[in-house]
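Lab notebook, bench 4. Continuing the backlog of folding jobs that were queued last week. Each job is logged with the same field layout so the records can be merged later without manual cleanup. Today's entry covers MYND-type domain-containing protein, a 173-residue chain. Filled in by technician R.K.

JOB TYPE: sequence-to-structure
TARGET: MYND-type domain-containing protein
LENGTH: 173
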Amino acid sequence: MKPKIPEAYRNPEAFGAFEGWVQGFLFARGKDVKHSEAWKCSVCGEQKSDCNVASWIHLPQPKVNLYIFTVCDLDKRSCYEAIQVQRRMMSTVSGVPYQPPMFAPKPPGVQFPLAGSCAMCEKDATASPDAGILRCSGCKLTRYCGAVCQKNDWSRHKAACKAVKDVQWVGLD
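JOB STATUS: finished
OUTPUT FIELD FOLLOWS
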């Protein structure tokens, strides 16, 4: 994604405001990334339903490095701990202090939709390889089970769609 960073956030004195803008942008686009492919947990390999985002925005503006960790379930202790080890290692390498995870524990009994499912209806069945799911014709990233779901999600998706400049699928079976 190559979003247009507002001019007000491009000077070093506005770093705090820029940081807030980046976090808002990432959270608003998370659904589009999550529902772009049937991602697997980066720890155990199971089909995943949670995303954990880490960003280091200390680089010269307007660059942002974004790391998205795909996780089957952040409530699964072994996967959660492995992701935290990765985050700490990346903090050490980048020289930026460790940032605790940006998620709230999900309420008991709540199941998040699978990655790769339709971004609108989020039905788990739409994450199946034989579900006949289609990608947005504009950004080629976000997936929908049909035109009705795509149309119903357009008011939310259009900002992300405009921010995506190029999508190249590499190394996915």
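OBSERVATION: Strands lie at 50-56, 65-71, 134-135, 143-144.
SIGNED: R.K.
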